[in-house]
Amino acid sequence: MRRLPLAIRSNSRTRS
């Protein structure tokens, strides 16, 4: 995660 919006960051957390 670099400088992605909160929405995308949350999405990545869910993917993990």
From TrEMBL:
<protein>
    <submittedName>
        <fullName>Leucine-rich repeat extensin-like protein 2</fullName>
    </submittedName>
</protein>
